[in-house]
Design goal:
This protein is about 20% helix and about 30% strand. By secondary structure, the chain is α+β, with helices and mostly antiparallel strands.
C-alpha cells in the first residue's frame, strides 16, 4: 500500500518501545543500529475538537532547528588554569594517541610527557548549590502548569533505522508498542528518498505535532558489493523492493498493519517534511560533504599530534564538613591527552 499523504491521527498516549537488534531480509546484511523507537509524550488526551484555547499558529510542516550546512562550529575557549604554586613534581613518559579525523587512517600515536604536580591550595570557589525545587503551591507555578494542560505539546521522538541503497532508495525499519504492552509490532518500508538528506537537524513539526529525530543510517553500493563478491566467485543478491512512487516523496509499506495510524504517522511526517524542505535539505547536505572533504584533506596534511599532559592536585586547606573526612582534595588536568 502506498503512503504518500499524511494521516490525521487522534491524540494517543504511548510508551517507549524497547527494541532488540534484528536482521534485514535474508538477501540483506544486518543493519547497524537496527532499532526504531517511537515515543509520544503528551498531557492527558483530549479530542481534536476540544474547546481548549488554541496554541499560537505555527508552520504546518517545517524544520524547527537550524540545518547544519558545513560551517564549522565555534571552538570553545580553553579554560585558564590558576597560577599554581608547585610544591613537588614528577614527570614520566607514556604513549598517547588521538584520532586521525580521517576515515580509514589509524590513530596518531606519540610518546608524551605526563607531569604530576602537588600544588598549594589555590582556594578556588565552591560550585554553586543546586537550584531549589519548585514550590507547586506557588501561584505562578500553578498558572504555568494550567497553561501546559490547556495547550499540550504533542511530541514524538523517532529513532529510525535506515539503509540507503545507491543513494536512490532507503529500506526503513521501526517498531510500535501500543498501549504500553509487552508486544511490539514491526514495520518495514521502502522509500524513494535518500535518507542521508535527513541529517543536519534534530527537530521538525508536521500536522500539529513536534518531532525529535534520531536516526541510525548506513549506506550500501550494490555495484561495489557485486564487484567485491565476484572476486571470490560469489554472486551478490540485491535486496528486492516493490515499485516505488515516481510522483514525489513516498514509500511502500512492506511489513505491518497499514491501518495502525500511530505507527504510520511518523513516516508520513518525514515524507511530508521532504515535500516542503527537500531542496533545502539536499543543498545543506551537499555543503556538508564539501566541508567534510576539505577537512579530510587538511588533516591528511596536518594530522593532529598528542600533547604533553600536566596534572595538578592539591589538598584543600579548609572545606565544608563532608561525610568522608578522608576525602583527598581536588585536581586540575591540562593537556591534550590523558
Amino acid at each position: 500500500m502506498l503512503h504518500t499523504e499524511s494521516w490525521n491521527i487522534g491524540l494517543l498516549t504511548l510508551t517507549v518501545v524497547s527494541l532488540l537488534a534484528y536482521m534485514c531480509p535474508a538477501s540483506m546484511k544486518t543493519i547497524p543500529l537496527a532499532f526504531v523507537v517511537l515515543t509520544v509524550a503528551m498531557a492527558p488526551a483530549r479530542s481534536q475538537d476540544s474547546d481548549a484555547t488554541a496554541s499560537p499558529a505555527a508552520p504546518a510542516t517545517a524544520i524547527l532547528d537550524k540545518v547544519v550546512a558545513g560551517s564549522p562550529s565555534q571552538t570553545a575557549p580553553k579554560p585558564v588554569a590558576p597560577n599554581f604554586t608547585v610544591k613537588s613534581t614528577f614527570t614520566h613518559q607514556a604513549e598517547a594517541q588521538v584520532d586521525s579525523g580521517v576515515p580509514g587512517l589509524p590513530p596518531v600515536k606519540k610518546m608524551v610527557n605526563v607531569t604530576v604536580n602537588l600544588v598549594e591550595d589555590p582556594h578556588l570557589p565552591d560550585p554553586p548549590p543546586p537550584l531549589p525545587a519548585l514550590d507547586i503551591s506557588d501561584p505562578a507555578v500553578q498558572a504555568r502548569m494550567a497553561a501546559i494542560r490547556r495547550n499540550p505539546r504533542k511530541t514524538v521522538t523517532a529513532y529510525i533505522s535506515a539503509t540507503v541503497y545507491d543513494h536512490s532508495r532507503t529500506f526503513l525499519r521501526w517498531w510500535w508498542q501500543p498501549g504500553g504492552g509487552e508486544k511490539s509490532d514491526e514495520f518495514n518500508a521502502w522509500s524513494n528518498l535518500d535518507f542521508n538528506d535527513f541529517s543536519g537537524f534534530a527537530r521538525f513539526t508536521s500536522n500539529g505535532r513536534d518531532y525529535a529525530l534520531l536516526m541510525g543510517i548506513g549506506n550500501q553500493s550494490t555495484g561495489q558489493n557485486r564487484k567485491l563478491l565476484a572476486r571470490s566467485g560469489r554472486t551478490y543478491q540485491e535486496p528486492e523492493h516493490p515499485p516505488l512512487p515516481t510522483d514525489g516523496p513516498g514509500y511502500v509499506l512492506t511489513l505491518g498493519d497499514p491501518s495502525n495510524t500511530g505507527a504510520i504517522a511518523t513516516m508520513d511526517a518525514l515524507h511530508d517534511l521532504y515535500r516542503v524542505e527537500g531542496e533545502r535539505l539536499k543543498a545543506a547536505r551537499a555543503q556538508r560533504e564539501i566541508a567534510s572533504k576539505e577537512r579530510e584533506d587538511y588533516l591528511r596534511l596536518h594530522p593532529p599530534v598528542p600533547e604533553d599532559v600536566t596534572i595538578s592536585f592539591w589538598k584543600r586547606d579548609s572545606r565544608p564538613s563532608a561525610p568522608d573526612d578522608n576525602a583527598a582534595g581536588d585536581s586540575a588536568v591540562k593537556g591534550g591527552a590523558q
